[in-house]
Amino acid sequence: MTQPSHGAPSLSHGPVPAIHRGLRLHFMGVGGIGMSGLAGICLERGCAVSGCDPKLNSTARRLQQRGATLSAGHHPSHTDQPIDLLVYSAAVSANEPELMQARIRGIPAITRGELLAAVAADHHLVAIAGAHGKTTTSGMASQLLLHAGWDPTVIVGGIMLSFGTNARAGSGSYLVAETDESDGSFLHLAPEVAIITNIDREHLNYYHTFERLVEAFRQFVGQIRPGGMLIRCADDPLIRQTLSSPHQRSYGLDVPADVTAERMQWNGHGSSFRARYHGRSLGTFTLKVPGRHNVLNALAVIALGLAREIPLVTIRESLALFQGTGRRFQVLRLPSDIWFVEDYAHHPSEIRATLAADAVTARHRVVVFQPHRFSRTQSLERELSTCFERADGVIVTDIYPAFESPIPGISGERLAHLIKAQGHPWVRYVPKPELSGFVSKIARPGDTIFFLGAGDIGEVCHDLATQLHSSPRTAG
Hints:
The chain is α/β, with parallel strands linked by helices.
C-alpha cells in the first residue's frame, strides 16, 4: 500500500485484512462523515461494527439503527470487546488512551484512509480530489454511474439527497469515493480515474508548506493505475502547470478545455447550460443545484461519462436528477417567507462561490458564519475578512476547534472586528450558546439566512428551523 510522503509520519500498522463478513471493526470518531460512510459500507458487507465519538450525532444514530453498537465518548474499556481491526479518524489524538490501550492489546489499528484503500482494492476506483467541490462532484459522479445501471459502491462526504445516505455498497465493479487530502490519506489510493477539481492553500497545518501540498497532488496523480485517466480542471492554473498524466481530459469555463460550457442561465436555485466536447455541441443540460461552480462540477462528470462511454442521454438525465447533497446549498423554506440555506463553505473561496450562487437577488441576505479550526482562521484571517461582500449582514460565532487547541488571540470575536474594519456595514459577534436566540429575533420576512461552516453550525440551522416551523411567531 502506498504511504503518504508528506506532513505527519505514516500511521500504517502492517497489512490491512480483507473486509469480509463477520470481521469485527471498531471505529473511533464514527460520527465523522467519512468514517460513518466506511462504517456503513462495512455493515452492508456483513461486518460487526462498533464505534465511539465524543458526541453521537444524527449520522451515528443512523448507523445504530442499522445495527452498529456505538458509545458516546472514548474510553479504554471499549477495547475489552473482541475487535479484529480498529479504525481511527484524524480527529483522534495518537495519545488517546483508548487507542493506546488497543495497541497494548495488540489490536491492529489503521487510519480511515487505509480502510478506504482496502475497501477500494478490488474495485475500479473513481476518486475525486481537490480543495473545493469534491462532495458535489462525487455525488454527481455517483448519480451518473447509478443511473447508468452500474450499481457502484459509493462513499461521499455528504448525504446525497436523492438517496438519503452518504454511502452504499453496490454489487458492481466501480467505487466512487471522495478523497481527503487534509491528512495525506488520499495517497493510500490508486485510482483508475482521478478527478481533480482545484488546489488551494489549505491544510498547511499538516503539510507545513504549500509546495508539499502540491507535491502530494503530483504523487496522487502518479498513482493512477496503468491505463487509467486523469480528469482535471483547466480553470485552475496550478493544475494546468503541474498535473498531467498519459491519459487525461480537461474541463473548464475560463480557458480552452476538452469539455466546456456556454449559454449558462441561472434559474432561481438551479441552472442550465450548453456543453461542448472538442468544440462539438453536446446539447443542453439542466441542474437543480445553483451557481457557476456547480456547472464546473457538472462538466467534470460529463468528462467522466464520455471517458467511460456512457450514453449522452444517460449523462444528461443523471445530472437533471441530481438533488444535491446535504450541507451544500441546502435550502429550508420556513413560515413567514424566511429561508435558511445551510452550506459547508468554510474557506473564503467557498464562501464567495456559495453567496454568488444565490440568484434570488431581491432577498435580504444574512450570513451566520462558524470559523473552522484555529489554525485555518489564523492563516486565512485576511481572506476571511473580505469574502462576505455579497451579504447584507454577517454574524460570526465561536471557532469550531475540531481537534485543535486554542491559539491565543485568534477568535470569532476578533474575526468579526476584522470584517467590520474592512468596511462591512453590519457585523455582529454572537457566542454560540446565544446564536439561536439572536437569529430568531432578527429574522424577518424576505430574509435568506446562510449558515456557513464545516463544524456543527448545521445543527444550529436545523434545530432553529424546527423551532420556527412550530412557533406561532416566526419573526419579529
